[in-house]
Design goal:
Elements: E1 7-15, E2 22-30, E3 35-39, H1 46-53, E4 61-66, E5 69-70, H2 76-82, E6 83-86, H3 98-103, H4 107-110, H5 118-130, H6 146-159, E7 164-168, H7 176-191, E8 195-199, H8 203-209, E9 212-217, E10 220-225, H9 227-230, H10 233-240, E11 244-248, E12 255-259
Parallel strand pairs: 3-8, 3-9, 6-7, 7-8
Antiparallel strand pairs: 1-2, 1-4, 4-5, 9-10, 11-12
Helix pairs in contact: 5-6
């Protein structure tokens, strides 16, 4: 367990005015376990939940608290020193070099125009090494692949050195090698005392590395627990229908999700075209 920066969401309700969709969380605490993954189909509320926990959205009702204090009571930089947040889509940046992008993560300690100190430089160097971008540190963002840019943004959050990391789709646009490497890194950070909460569509990576899964459907948490409890066919069916099967991972013996070749509504076993 990690008791550094747990976030409590009590009787939280959030609603988008445009369509009436709502997220409802009677009681939820995240950031206690070392590595938590929030999973669920598109539109289930995963990113909304993460943005509420980061203080970027305000609930219609209920409270989101850190150490018993409402997130709205924290100055933004003070909150960022406690909670690091990676959005699903990063805002466009000037064509900075990779190292400059990562150093932006240090603003919470020194301000936007603060001088880089020895501790800050060590944090930047460590973050670049952790995501495998040390050799590219001087390259401009425009010279990187989409996956490399994603890793640069992850490094910026790591350099922040916050106790709790909230990451929205950190493995999107990454190949399987780098996606697994990022998940290994996040699991390792959890073991070193930083709590990590990740939104992901990668059920198998979540089941392989996380110690807790939250499964959302339609703005509600329908399952919460270790992968062996959540990644079961009878549980996933409510979220994903009958088009998936759960098997045993050949290395760990844990759950492994595979797609059916023919969907539940398909009439035949083979496509003719």
């Amino acid at each position: 367990m990690n008791s550094g920066n747990p976030i409590d969401l009590d009787a939280v309700r959030f609603q988008y005015a445009s369509d009436g969709w709502s997220l409802e969380l009677p009681r939820l605490r995240i950031g206690v376990e070392r590595f938590t993954c929030i999973v669920g189909p598109n539109g289930s509320g995963k990113s909304t939940l993460l943005r509420l926990a980061a203080g970027l959205l305000k609930p219609v009702s209920g409270a989101v608290r850190l150490d018993g204090k409402s997130l709205s009571g924290f100055p933004r930089r003070a909150l960022a020193r406690r909670i690091g947040f990676l959005p699903q889509e990063s805002p466009p940046l000037f064509d900075y070099a990779v190292e400059e992008v990562v150093r932006l993560g240090r603003y919470v300690h020194s301000g936007w125009f603060g001088e880089a100190d020895a501790d800050g430089q060590r944090a930047v160097d460590k973050a670049l090494s952790d995501v495998g971008l040390t050799a590219q540190r001087l390259r401009p963002l425009s010279h990187l692949s989409g996956g490399e840019r994603k890793r640069a943004m992850i490094a910026a959050v790591l350099a922040q050195e916050s106790g709790l990391l909230l990451l929205d789709e950190p493995t999107a646009a990454l190949d399987i090698h780098h996606a697994a490497a990022v998940m290994r890194l996040l699991a390792r950070l959890g073991r070193r005392g930083r709590a990590v909460v990740v939104v992901t569509h990668e059920l198998n990576l979540a089941a392989l590395f996380a110690e807790r899964l939250l499964l959302l459907v339609g703005g509600r948490v329908i399952a919460d627990g270790p992968p062996s409890h959540v990644v079961r066919a009878e549980v996933l069916r409510e979220a994903y229908g009958d088009d998936i099967m759960v098997r045993e991972h050949p290395e760990t013996g844990g759950p492994l999700v595979v797609a059916r070749r023919c969907g539940a509504g398909d009439a035949g076993g083979n496509d003719a075209d």
